[in-house]
Design goal:
CATH topology: Immunoglobulin-like
Number of domains: 1
Helix content: 10-25%
Low-confidence stretches: 1-28
Structural class: alpha+beta
Mean pLDDT: 82
CATH class: Mainly Beta
CATH architecture: Sandwich
Strand order of the largest sheet: 3-9-8-5-6
Number of strands: 9
Strand content: 35-45%
Length: 124
């Protein structure tokens, strides 16, 4: 009997600890902003590059569409904007509230940023 109670208590503690870890395995995105002030589309290429070296958006809620134009898995993050991450098999879409400035877009798949999978996003 004591052994059963100990096993149940241990299983409950493990379940609570794992629940606190949080991620469901998908990409994390902050709550969507509205209304959308501008939209950009970023393409991910097999040569570890984006389809452009720079992008432009309008201050406010920026909708980003991330498309895989190849066969490799990629991510899209904005430096200095925690919690925003798009991932592509085919396409992912997210929104982010941005103030004027220049932001660095990058892919955090191992080796991709170092290989040059970066671009500038200018928000005016």
């Amino acid at each position: 009997m004591h052994r059963t109670i100990t096993s149940i208590a241990g299983a409950a503690a493990l379940a609570l600890a794992l629940a606190g870890c949080g991620s469901s395995g998908g990409s994390a995105k902050p709550a969507a902003c509205t209304p959308v002030a501008s939209s950009i589309t970023v393409g991910a290429l097999n040569n570890l590059k984006f389809d452009a070296a720079s992008y432009e958006a309008t201050t406010g809620c920026v909708q980003m569409t991330y498309r895989n134009e190849g066969s490799l898995a990629h991510t899209l993050l904005v430096k200095g904007q925690p919690g925003f991450k798009l991932a592509v098999g085919d396409e992912d879409v997210g929104r982010l509230e941005l103030k004027p400035g220049t932001y660095k877009l990058y892919c955090d798949v191992a080796g991709h940023e170092a290989a040059g999978m970066v671009a500038d996003l200018t928000v005016k």
